[in-house]
Structures are given as C-alpha cells and as structure tokens.
C-alpha cells in the first residue's frame, strides 16, 4: 500500500459528528414537521448564500481531517515497507508543494524578493547587501521587475477561465438535476433560475458558488508560483497556514458543542421533568460551574494539562498526537464552561412541557418516565438545542483566537488563527509593517464568523416557534 | 428585605464551597505538589531534595487533607487543604509562588482595572442605548437595515483585531496617544484613552444589537399600542414608555457584571501594558504561578455570586411587580 490512514482522536470525533449529522438529516427528511423549518432556511437568500460559504470551509476542514502517512522510498538494506513518520492530510496532498516551499524569512504577498537584506555573493566575487531572490516565488521569471505584473495578470486570467469552466459545468449539472426533478425542459429551468422564480433561490446559491469557485481557482493558480499571502517569520507560506487553521477553528466550534450536548440535554431535561431534589442538585451543579469565570477555569485546566503532559512526555507518540489531544481537551473544557446556558434553557422548557395535557395523559396512562422523555419532551426541545448549537459556533471560533493569545488555547505548534495573530502581533512595530499574517487571519476568520452569524440568524428565525407565528 | 438578603447570602455559601472544592481538586489532586515542583525546577534530573526544598519553601510540604503527625485539631488544619484552600474564604490568599503577598497585589492592581472597566461600561452603555433607540426610531427603513448589517459585521470581528487596529491607527499612524503603558495617579489619563475607545467600539456590535431586539420586543406590546391609540407622538412613546420599560432588563444585565469589573479585562490589559488584575492573571498563567490563578478563580466566583445577589435586589427595587417572599 502506498499509504496508511492515521485517525487522530479529533478525526474520529469528526467522523462521529458527520455520521450523526447524516443520520439526523435522513430522519428529518422523512418527517414533515422537521423538514419544514429547514425548507425555510434554504428558501432564504441569506440562508443559501451563507450555506455555500460554510460548505466551502467545511470541505477544506474535512480534507484536512483525513490524515495519512505516505510510504517511504526504497532504502538500501531495508526489506519491509516503511512509512514516513510525518502525518499528512488530504489537504496537504491537494495543495501540492505549498507546504514544503519554505523561504528564509518574511516576504510580502506576491513578492519575488525577501523582505530583509542579506549579503549576497556576486558571480565576480564581490559581496553586496541586497534583497535576495525568493527560492519558490517567481523563480521562473528572468527579470522579475518587468515581468511580474504581466505574469500575475496572465495567471489570474488562466485561473478565471478555469474557474468559469468549472462553474458552468457545475451549473449545467444542477440544471439537469432540477429539470429531471421538475419534469421540464433544460431551457425552462435556466429561465426560471435566471429570473429568480424558483422557491429555493438557486440564482443566489449559484452566484455565491461561482464567487467561491472563481476565488479558489485564481488563488490556486497564483499559489503555484507565488506566496499569495506572503511568508511568515520562519518563511512558511501564510496562505497554507491559514487554510490549515480552518480545521482548528471548525473543530473548536463544532466538537465543543458535541461533547457538551449529552450532559446538557440529560441534566437539563431531568431537572425540569423530575423537579424536587434532582432539580436542586442539578441547579447547584451548574450554578457552581457557572460562577467560576470561564477564562480562569480554562486557564486552570490547561495549566494542569501542561503539567501532566510535560511530566508524561513519553506517553505521546508524536507532536501531532500531543497537539491533537490538547485540542480535544480544549474542546472538552470549553464544553464544560458553555453547557450551563443550554442546560438552564432546557430545564425551563421541560418545566413547561411536563404540565402540558399530552404529557399528563401519557403519565396517567402509566407510560414510564424514560418513554415520556424520549417521545414527548425530547422532540419538543430539539429546536432549542439546534438554535443554541448554531448560535454558539461563531463565539467559539472567536474564543479560540483569544485563548491562543493568552497561551491557554491550542498547542503552539498547531496551525490556528489565534497562533497566527499571536506571532504576527509584534511585527506591527516593524518598519515597514509586516501586515499580511494578520490580514490573512482577519480575512478568513471574518468570513467564517460572518457567514456563521448570518446563517445562525436564519436558522433561529426558521426554528423559533414564537417568531414563526409572528411571521405567518 | 434584610431577611431576604441574608437568605440570598446564605444560599451562596454552598456554591462557594463547591468552587473551592473544584479548585482544590484541580490544583492539588489532579497533579500532586511534586508535579508542580518538577515543573518549576525544570523537567528531568531534578533531585528529590530539590523537590522537597521547593515544597517546604512554598508551604506545599503538608499532607493533602489529613495530617496524622500533628496533634489534636492541627491534624486537620496543618494540611494543604486547610492552609491553601479553606483560608480563601477569609480572603487570605497567601503568597504567590515567587513569594509576593497576593492580597496586597490584588488591592493595588484593582484600581487600574477599574479605571478602564468603569468608563468602558458607562460610555458603552450610553452609546449603545442611544444608537439602538435611533435604529428603532427609523425601524424598517434603510437606516435600520444598514445598521443591522454593520452591527453583524462588527460582531464578527475578533476582539483582538479591534485592539491591534486601534493601536495601529491611533498610535502608530497618527501618533495621537501612546501605544501602551501606564502612569501613577491622574497622569494615567492619556494611557487610558485608547483602551477605553477600543473597549467601547468592540462592544458596539453585540451591545446595540441586543438593545435593538429588546426595544423591538417592547414596542410590540399592548401598552405601546394603547399609547399610540391615545394619540401620543412616536418620540414620546419611545422615550417615555418603551425606554423606561426596557430599562428593567438593561439595568439588571448591567448590575450582574458590576462586581466583575474589578477583575479587569485579560486581553485589553495585557495588550496595553496596564498593571491591573487582568494582566496580573495573564502573567500568572504564563509564569505558571498556580497560587495566583487559584486565588483569582476563587475571587472571580465570589464576585460573580455577588453580582447575582445584587441583580435580585435591583429587580425588587426597580420593578414593583416583583415581590419578596
């Protein structure tokens, strides 16, 4: 085999999450009352546009989650096949050499020369202090000063044409599917979509898709020969770093809610449904946890984790594994600090629901508590769970950056927006300013969080029964 | 009233005991004092004597919860649990891992924290409420839609970028205020301008959006319709009726954070080099000073619970419908 798959802890949890999401989607598609709110979501223009952006992020994050180790080349004297110790992801493979194209230190976006002067040996033996050429950016140009602008324009054009072709093919694929589904001719589908006469705003969706695809192709085409977002202090490509950071951000936003959900749902419903001493106990539990300021609790736990890890350094096979476990713990502890809000909401809702006639009827007919909760309470609080889940996401992505800045976030060796900001922060004091790491982190984070915020608003409007009645 | 407050305070005691137990478990049971000593003295090749010496120096050389060697009651008091955790209840924080008196440091450092947190709170509140009222006055117009888009955009920006952007624009490009630092007494004002501006601007997105929702909810209620039916003008309705009623949730939301203002802001203070409690905590985290982090966890919990009690009291003061049992 040319490679062996590697499954880290967080990878496994992502797969679990995807399986759960898939199962829920399948279940929801068969039940009208669950399909209806989702239909509202995809019928809103903001909803589909942000969904396309989020999907693009999710795709990059997913590619970065499938990890593997490549087979090493044949070595003299070694019979059995050996695998490289380095853990790669599909994203690393897809990006080709972007990971390995290291420079010496800073270089600006699209630059062909390094950002600092160095002593260079001239062919005639003299030593000149000048900006040296970059090893992997614009190396194919004879005279970078003159040719660079034209080269960049040409590559942008190539990228645009490629992207356009891909987009048009995709559009036709979707038109064809729609034509089959609606039972009308292809030209009629095109007319309806372009005129914006479809229930699902396909025009907006395909437009957003077009923007994402075009940007992706242009960036991909340019990144072959340039560092399109520059390089950082140790010469690593910033575009590569920020793409790798997507996985970290998405994981913190999703896994945290995944690990806190069971506890929040179970305890919240139990407190509201059983009342009495169960309620007192659970309320005491979450008030206590809630009264410790979140950052300090996280700091305390991560400090303890650091102590443990440095005293048990042998327990971890590789740096990647160690960073991964730290990420998992961060998700866990963020979950501990954030489950209390959901728990309180669910308790209040369960308190209301247990007094409603059909629950009373079920109880008086002798149905067990477990069945009542599973059949009557749980389905009626799921919309709260979903809304909280979506609303919390953007806050968690932002929290990651702050925590990494305080050094209690993800492992310093892991790619994350927080670490990027943290290492680039001091460089603003340089003259001229090194701005590209910050700009890259800002751009990618802002797009993700903005899309998530807008999407969350649409989901909340679609699922909240109060707002739904007001709108109808 | 006194009985009510007393009951609320009594109710807080079990919660504080819980917090205390959690910190004790986290800091002394998950990792033993030996682990901490090894961490501070360097990882490998640390002699047992060095570890014992470090523990004795910092007072960690006692048994965790029960000391069979000590006579009488001292078998319970001469322990890490009593010396390091129970004493927090009396606000005896002890000394930090590098030997400074934590209680004294806290009393010195809370003033710079307050000097930033209080103006940020007041100015932010004033600006957000006025802006939200302005939006609501022009609701369902382009001013409303544009503002909401702006607010969602603003709340999607990480707080780190507000600080970095503020420092870059105001200090580096225009040289209006110093980038960071602090001064004693009244001279501190020029160091405070930038953090306060950044704090207020950073809070606009979430704050104004929240107040806007609040006002819109209030405006949909029956009494507003009645007021309009009586022929009152829109401005009168908004300021006399809507604002006054919406002030109840706003006020209680403010009261709950009042005590926590003492803790300062971790990020702002460390970015601007302000010697408040926030940067104190950050320094302790990066120096791995467990004694300080432990004290701050407990102090934070006390202040939070104090905020909850104050909230309940303020409810009864501003809303005549809420009665004390």
- What sort of overall outline of chain A do the alpha carbons produce when their principal axes are compared? globular
What order do the helices and strands of chain B follow?
A: HHHHHHHHHHHHHH
Distinct helical segment count of chain B? 14
For the secondary structure, the number of strands of chain B is 0
Q: What kind of sheet is the major sheet of chain B?
A: none
Low-confidence stretches of chain A: none
Distance between the termini of chain B: 9 Å
Distance between the termini of chain A: 59 Å
CATH topology of the domain at 238-471 in chain A: MetI-like fold
Relative strand content of chain B:
under 5%
Q: Which strands sit side by side, in order, in the main sheet of chain A?
A: 1-2-3
Write down the oligomeric state.
heterodimer
Main beta sheet strand tally, sense and closure of chain A: 3 strands, antiparallel
- Name the CATH superfamily classification of the domain at 238-471 in chain A: MetI-like
Structural class by SSE content of chain B: mainly alpha
Indicate the structural class of chain A.
mainly alpha
Brief characterization of the structure:
Chain A is mainly α and 472 residues long. Helix content of chain A is 68%, strand content 4%. Chain A is globular, with a radius of gyration of 26 Å.
